[in-house]
């Protein structure tokens, strides 16, 4: 990374906003430490090797050739530390013609994988994934690989190379569709809401203009309950909608009928009826509405992150909870090089040695 650190530190500046707050960077870096080492120098490379000598995991998103130039490639580091878990995160993987290509989630995860084409309804223009969504999915797969490698080390004593990429994280996430493509050579596009392949698996707007998502179980069990909840029980017996195939062939008529029924009912009434029938459904919420969602709050969805001014900032929690354990971050996201001195002291360097490295520009 450049001396200023991860480019996401400049997220708001890159979109034309001038603010000292950066919750996007804080989300992924809260509680971490930061040290700056110039690996273009021989002394910097030697220092990195000292840090990795007894490390459990080395995690990097730098492209392979740059790592090799700095002597931080898997072969070099794992030769010095045979127990090391070396985790590489790239756009396209460590092998192949595009292994050295730069990648971000809108490109490698969203666009190249097929997500962008399949998600946009047929006939509409592609649109980007929301900030960091593909990155976070890839990070979960990377953690899974690291944990598997750590388990392997407990039985063999040997480290492993973990090769994670945005592209493979995306294609696995899209795996249900891609497995159909691989088996049959084609996959259905995403139709507009009114022509849904399963018109019951859809979005409907209530009288008070609140949207909800309905997800029936496979087959027909939920159809009579859905029709009743929408206040149109007779639709369940209509031969046009009697089975899955008939509903697909008459999708526009069925969606129009359910739209009309939903628009005549308050959201609270629809919600209560669907709950009483044990139908799977969910409100379609804005982020602001989510902040007031009692279940989201009760499930620990908000984490209080310590700020530098002594207050706390609300931030999304991680995806997993460990009841009985304090998961509060140890501190805010670090400034670039904030912990250089303390990390090098823990490595055994004296104050004079650290000062010499700083004077030479090796660390900062």
How many beta-strand elements? Answer: 8
Radius of gyration: 26 Å
Number of helices: 18
What's the architecture of the domain at 194-282 in CATH terms? 2-Layer Sandwich
Mean pLDDT score: 95
> What is the terminal separation in angstroms?
13 Å
* Beta-strand proportion: 5-15%
CATH topology of the domain at 194-282: formyl-coa transferase, domain 3
Share of helix, binned: 40-55%
Structural class: mainly alpha
Order of strands, widest sheet: 1-2-3
Largest sheet: 3 strands, parallel
Shape: elongated
Uncertain segments are none
**CATH class placement of the domain at 194-282:** Alpha Beta
Instruction: Let me know the CATH homologous superfamily of the domain at 194-282.
Output: formyl-coa transferase, domain 3
SSE run: HHHEHHEHHHEHHEEHHHHEHHEEHH
Characterization of this structure:
Helix content is 41%, strand content 10%. With 364 residues, the chain is mainly alpha-helical. Among the domains are: 1-30 and 285-333, no CATH class; 194-282, formyl-coa transferase, domain 3 (2-Layer Sandwich), CATH 3.30.1540.10. It has a 3-stranded parallel beta sheet, with helices on both faces. Strands 4-5-6 form a 3-stranded antiparallel beta sheet. Strands 7-8 form a two-stranded antiparallel sheet. The relative contact order is 0.12.
